[in-house]
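Table S2 (continued). Query chain:
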Amino acid sequence: MKQLVIEVPRLASMRVAGNPPSFTSACEMPYLVKASLTHPVGDHGLLWSLRDARRLDLIGFSATALLDGEPDDDDDFPMFHNLRALLLDWCELGRVGCRVLHRFLQNAPRLETLTLLHCAVSSDDYYCSRSAKRVKTSAGDRHEPAAAPYPCENLWYVEVQFYDDHTVVELAKVLGHISKEMARPIEGSVLDGKRTVKIWYA
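Corresponding output:
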């Protein structure tokens, strides 16, 4: 299978949609502001070329594509030091523990906004999504182990969309480790069985 190789080190914005060929980057892109990618567009290695992006939209990615088939190897995942906004749309978040989301929260210290749209847990047929109150109560009621909080201290806004008949337990557990003392006004709405939850952090 042929692969498209791009080499544009000064690229500022990239959007790949539709049914593109697999591609990779032959160089780093330190000036990248925004990248929007629809799977399948490349392998796990492509994330390393996007690690300087300020906004990253990933649509339809499997956990295997994002984790390179090594769900327990936290060292094999890029640091996104500049990432301010992350959107995962119809992506798999990984199995129990939502490893994909865990890694992004662990490796994006400057993250400010997080949007999860209909994201699923791998290998199970249910959708993971986090409801604001469930995130807090789940962490509090279950006596979660004292795991190190995520370093994204600038995170102030989270939005999640999911369908009412899908569970949010795993996602709630992961988000419960966000080091925020208080969630400001929590907004929720339901339309055609689809629930939207918005959380603002103090």
